[in-house]
Amino acid sequence: MTTILRSFVSGRWVEGTGERNVLVNPATEAVAAETSTRGVDFKDALQFARGKGGPVLRSLTFAQRGELLAKLASAIHDIREELVELAIANGGNTRGDAKFDIDGAAITLQAYADLGKQLGGRKFLLDGEQIALGRNPRLIGQHVWLPLTGVAVHINAFNFPAWGMGEKAAACLLAGMPFITKPATATALTAWRIAEEWVKREILPPGVFSFIAGSPGDLLDHLTSQDVLSFTGSGLTAHGFRTRESIVKNSVRLNVEADSLNSAVMGLDVEPGSATWEFFLNEVSRDITQKAGQKCTAIRRIFVPRHLINQAKDELAARLSEVKVGNPALKEVKMGPVATAQQLRDVRAGVQKLRAQAEAVLNDGGRGQLIAVDGERGYFVAPTLLLAGDPWKAADVHSHEVFGPVSTLMPYNDVEDAIGLVRLGDGSLVASVYSDDKDFVQAMVFGVAPYSGRIHVGGEKIAEHSPGPGTVLAQQVHGGPGRAGGGEELGGLRGLEFYSQRTAVQGLKPLLEKVFG
Ligand code: NAP
Description:
By secondary structure, the chain is α/β, with parallel strands linked by helices. 36% of the residues lie in helices and 21% in strands.
């Protein structure tokens, strides 16, 4: 029997009417679930969250909010195996990919639970110290963060249904805002099952959590100035939000995590065969194939010193050609399909576009050799490595994100050349630098930091401890300037700022000290 996904709004599960969207297994094209949100009252859902969830959540201390987060994390952990199966069936994930998403969600929620515990019995955050505002020491200023009184709307991309929901929930709940979360429809099954478990366990007070399984209808038209919208997805969808009347008119705070042409740069000091060389090749090949390249943080552009380009090309192609691609339900398979038929079309079209400026080193956006796949079924793309010998003339390679297992290798001449080429990406989530030379690392970090949300520095002494550039950690900010959307999430307590108002309070020192404890 087909699973019908319902939405959890206004404190109850509701099933949409009319024609349903069909979610499929991208390896077999079998139906995985169906959903519709037609008829759902989104205006009421917002009002319920604002009116019921907000006041209760704001009355809790950080420690109490942290306890809720810990329970959300445990719920995910308890049904982990079931979630892994759903991620395989609806996301095309291998077991490793599925755990990356699911464990990432639980770990991030737990990290914010721990932060809540550390903050203890407080309900708000002070920003900085008292400031003397005049000659009289009794007049002081104090900045304070308090949660907004509206609702946070979270809209996520298809590639991380669990982590996307968890990481946005973590900072939002700790800050004290109720939230309505919407996974991408095509891969919503994992997120829906988590939502079901959270609701069944009655972890969160009524109104704090709502879940939309499908289109959000007219929800965004009812956002007010105290609401926020946090979005992860394509730059094109983000553009629609940025120009939407309700958002513009009400100055709705909007966070965008969008496309990114992340780069990896091998240092000029790296010798073939050295530990750093091997580390670089390992991280790059893992990054291209993990989640079939459908990671916002995946390495799309690989820069190698010109004199090493041929050797790097051969060794990287050899590693990628060893990756077993096929039905991700099988343990030996290390890379599954991309998530949807549309995604497959986009990846193929993207490869063709890049091929006008880059030659194919390994594969060409085709299916390749597949394990346990029925005929032409499934949305498979073999790991594809391209080479752009003249990177300054390969404009599309620096501007068109192919969201699949596809990356382009490029030579560079010196550190200034490498910096200039990374910058052509016009803002990305992460740039990686593989080098053990302080001067090279320093030049790269200062050269590309204004264009990067995060810089991952890899070298031989750190190799065995590295989470890789693709892993987003709760302790550090995630987001990037320019093409990457200009947003910022996570980063420990920094993540709470988006959900809070920083207010400058000025007045009598002893009185304000009593007010703020
Ligand atoms: P997408 O097509 O922009 O969709 C993202 C989300 O927006 C989905 O939940 C989608 O819902 C929703 N959506 C689309 N149009 C909407 C509208 N008019 N009103 C309300 N919601 C709307 O992106 P995607 O294909 O899922 O994700 C791939 C992109 O996301 C890639 O470009 C990738 O780089 C980016 N991404 C970025 C990050 C990051 O952290 N920076 C992380 C992951 C992915 P439906 O599914 O129901 O249409």
